[in-house]
Amino acid sequence: MGRLILFTRPMSLCLILVAAMTCALGVRAAAEDALAERCRALQQQPQQAIVECESAFAQLAGDASVEQALEMLFRRSDAELAMGDYAAAQASLERAAALPGALDVWKGRYRLQRRSAILAYRRGQFAEALSAFRESLDLAVIHGDVESEGQSWNDLGNALRRIGSYREALQAYLASLQRKRSMGDSELGPLMTNLGDLYRDLDDPDSARNYYLQAIELHQAQGRSLRVAHVNEALATLALDTRDYERARQQLNLAAAVFLAEGARPDQLRVAARRARLELDLDQRDAARQLIAEGQSLAQSLAIPVSADLSIESARLELLDGAPERARQLLVAALAHAVEGSPEHAALLALQARALRELGRTDEAYTQLLLFQQVDARLRTAEHDERLQLLRVRFEVAEKDRSLAALAAKASMASLALRQRTLQIWLLAALALLGMSLLGFLTYRSRERQRIAAARRESQLQTEADHFRAAAAALEADVGRVQALLDQSESALLALDASATIVAANNRAALILGGAVPALSGRRLDEFLDADSVARLSHALERIDECDARLDLSFQLSSGSSSPVFPSRLVAHQDVDGTLVLVQLDVGAQNAPDTSEPTRSEPIAVVVDGTSDQEHADGFRRELVELMLAALAAWQQSMRSDAIELAQKSRIWRVAIDDGRVRVRAMERYLSLAKIPRQPRWREVLRTAYFVLAEAPLDAESRADLRRRCEAIQAWVRRRAVV
User: How many degrees, rounded to 5, is the angle at CA 155 between CA 149 and CA 160?
Assistant: First the structure.
């Protein structure tokens, strides 16, 4: 017992140590996650985000979580980019690239490449950005990441829009939309916003507003209030461009309220400048002065210089107040922080020239105006150079594609030459063996001739089979014409084929069966009826095959015993397009008594032989019976099968079960001159013969006899004008 106690004490101490270490690791992991989450949450406060992201990176850099450490550097770069510190953002990306193991995983390379492209885009280096975006797209395509593909296509669209390639930008946006929808992505709001920006650049405010509103609706469905505010800001800018000041005021107020509630101070600063522009356009100086003061206070709290947009509006206000000297001082301070050669720099120079002119300092105003023209010219030249660079990149890509195509063509020619050389070698070998094996060659030639003859016969048989299949299909019902005829009727009508499948139906019949007209096509009528009605329908279809009359009976839908009973009428309908069974549902006489007795009356739109010469009519029926007997005999002889299998495979004749026996009553009527109907379905007989000619391996004599009989029936039809 003493030994057991001595043994268990060290084990207990080990367990306590393991638990303590696990707890410490858990606390540390929780602390690291908290730092990382704080870095992500402070993106709207870039200066604080830089500090928090750097602190989180310092905690994570020594651990195995390279992905999280990378994300912290990426987030820091985003915050520095939001403050306009492009050099610092570039340095953070370089630190991320130098992180051990950062580029081992393709997703890390993709994210680094994409952020480098975004940085080039923000710097105005659109050609470099476009090339980098394409490389990130190639990475996503190679690794089959549809989500990253959709993101990269969206980035490409932004870059193409900025260089004025609007058509290609639209194609890129549509490609992004297709991939996002294919994977069920609900984050379509930013893409709709980009489409709105594209149409705003194309001076199509109505289309732009439509896409902006779609973006707002998508963001609201996901509770993205900050993104809704950004789209409202874009709508306000669109309204300002079209001088719709009331709408611009509403959208800017909505955006400003959300930015204030979310603590998005950089966004507040930007909206303050736009609101000040709106008030100055409306000559509301007091309101503009208050907004400018709010913007200056925000810039001071963020420890960043006043934005060029806000400085421009401040200078405009001073000029309107008749204080050009204060306006000049504001512009001088703004020019000290503006990026030289940027569009904002040009706008500040133009406004400073105006202030100097109003001060009477004409020479200085002229100098500033010259500087403005130089900057504006450089901007236009830079834009032109960017487009030339893009064209150069496209040209280089086209040249690479051309080189690849040339190499492929060269490889193909080499392959053809090799094949030709191989053929020549075989030919020489054959010629060498020709003298030694003349008998074998003659035997081979004889067999080859036999094979060619067999192939020719097979080709001829296949051609004939295709011809007979087409002829059989030509005798089938034209569904479009039948549908048009049914749509013209005010009654509820269905058209059934030989297997009780719905071929066409009008809207009234579709309403009764509880579906739409396209959904009914191809379904069996049995699916909509209860068991008793299915039995009555089967019996009626058998009866209508055996009598040239209409049948009246009632149907009850399969929805339950409480469903109404619809008196119906079945009619064998034969016209120039084929033979169908029409079913008329009587809506106005529900729950009527059932009857299945045939009623001798004229069928609906039935086209009969129409001949007055009984002798010719009898001859036509005799030819039909002989053709049917010949087709059945040829089928039985070649396929070793019976009439039932012929009916099932051809799907021309209805197969019924009578007292446990499978029968084809309709077909049997055409096997005897005494039983053939007064109005024979000659199309079905011809289709049966065509089916046998196309599908059965007949001998030459049987095939010729069957073709001759088919031609005789066609001659009868043409002579008696049946068609």
Answer: 125
> Strand, coil or helix: what is 558?
coil
How far apart are alpha carbons 77 and 437 in whole angstroms? Answer: 83
Q: Strand pairing partners for 598?
A: 551
> Cα separation of 103 and 117, whole Å?
17
Name the token pair of 88: 């610092």
If we measure between CA atoms, which residue out of 290, 287, 284, 338 comes closest to residue 311? Answer: 338
Q: How far is CA 320 from the centre of its chain?
A: 54
User: Is-contact 348 332, C-beta < 8 A?
Assistant: no
DSSP string, 341-380: TSHHHHHHHHHHHHHHHHTT-HHHHHHHHHHHHHHHHHHH
| Tokens linked to 592 | 């009527």
Q: What is the pLDDT of residues 414-435, one digit of tens each?
A: 888 888 889 889 988 888 888 8
Tokens representing 179 are 């991939």
Which tokens hold the place of 594? Answer: 């059932």
The alpha carbon dihedral of 655, 658, 660, 661 has a sign of: negative
Tokens found for residue 619: 């001859």
Q: What is the mean pLDDT of residues 138-151?
A: 86
Element (H, E) at 275: helix 265-281
Q: What is the distance between the alpha carbons of residues 665 and 545, in angstroms, rounded to a whole number?
A: 8
Structure tokens at 350: 């133009």
Q: What is the pTM of this model?
A: 0.44
Dig out the tokens for 629 from the structure: 């007997």
Alpha helical stretches, state H, 282-323: 285-301, 308-320
How much is the mean pLDDT over the chain?
A: 75
